[in-house]
Amino acid sequence: MSRSPLIARTVPSLRRATDNLRKRKATIALVPTMGALHDGHVSLVRLAKRRASRVVVSIFVNPTQFAPTEDFGAYPRTWKSDIAKLAAEDVDIVWHPGVEAMYPQGFATRIVPEGPALAGLEDRFRPHFFGGVATVVGKLFTQCRPDFAIFGEKDFQQLRVVAQMARDLDLGVKVIGSRTVRERDGLAMSSRNVYLSAEERQTATVLYRAMKDSAGRIKAGEAIAPAMARGAETIEAAGFALDYFEVRHAETLAEVTSRKDGPLRILVAAKLGTTRLIDNIAV
């Protein structure tokens, strides 16, 4: 029988709860989210439960990672269904701070990541984004003090940025990536998929098919440039406005010219109607 998680809304209440867990020698895994939970998030919780004896899920729509032109106000918020999903998974604590708890009056410190945060992918189109992500995740790590933190691979550059930050700042957290969860037709699960019209939802599967096709061509020995060019043409022909469709080194996100350059990852970002989708796969 599922039980309702403890809901903490202030740092002192969160600290009391996590301190009580540690007194019982518990290990803690954190799953950071912005809510609007779907099966992809549930998969992160299940991985967290395999890695640690207790699980904390944060739900916080972080304003500092949204530009003025982006969808902070419209970002889906589904609190009741989120809590029901987390209760069904026996999550121990939900950390649900308000903006004033995360960024109190006079807040004046930011984390400015470099390395994979400056790879020329998401940062080229959303230059504000990784500073906001690094700052809020840095705060989540110091607030929750987890042993493990679970992030989805769908936001692959974000995963690399967060892992680098945790190493560089000696935060004592092992950052673990979890495989992207997909719909049956290949579309990566995302809270933003609800913005797609029925027609756009059908078209959206082109991203995954184009990545798979380009990856297959590269594995078969075709040069990277023509293989990727063919995939980009497929995406644009379907009606997407393409931001990037690139193959990068899977660890550093450095540019590559050959399959011999190391483990490879194809990453894509494209807009369909008013909805911007991102995805990636290993080559």
TrEMBL record:
Binding site for beta-alanine: Q65
Alphabetic keyword roster: ATP-binding, Cytoplasm, Ligase, Nucleotide-binding, Pantothenate biosynthesis
Highest taxon, organism lineage: Bacteria
Organism for this UniProt entry: Bradyrhizobium stylosanthis
Residues given in the record as (R)-pantoate binding sites: Q65, Q158
GO cellular component entries: cytosol
Subcellular localization(s) per the UniProt record: Cytoplasm
Active-site residues (renumbered): H41
Protein residues bound to ATP: 34-41, 152-155, 181, 189-192
NCBIfam families the UniProt entry points to: panC
Pathway(s) where this gene product acts: Cofactor biosynthesis; (R)-pantothenate biosynthesis; (R)-pantothenate from (R)-pantoate and beta-alanine: step 1/1
Miscellaneous comment: The reaction proceeds by a bi uni uni bi ping pong mechanism.
Lineage of source species: Bacteria, Pseudomonadati, Pseudomonadota, Alphaproteobacteria, Hyphomicrobiales
Oligomeric form and interacting partners: Homodimer.
Function: Catalyzes the condensation of pantoate with beta-alanine in an ATP-dependent reaction via a pantoyl-adenylate intermediate.
MF GO annotations: ATP binding; pantoate-beta-alanine ligase activity
Name of the top EC class for this enzyme: ligase
Catalyzed reaction equations: (R)-pantoate + beta-alanine + ATP = (R)-pantothenate + AMP + diphosphate + H(+)
Protein name: Pantothenate synthetase
Main subcellular localisation: cytoplasm
This protein's encoding gene: panC
EC number: 6.3.2.1
GO BP field: pantothenate biosynthetic process
Family indicated by similarity: Belongs to the pantothenate synthetase family.
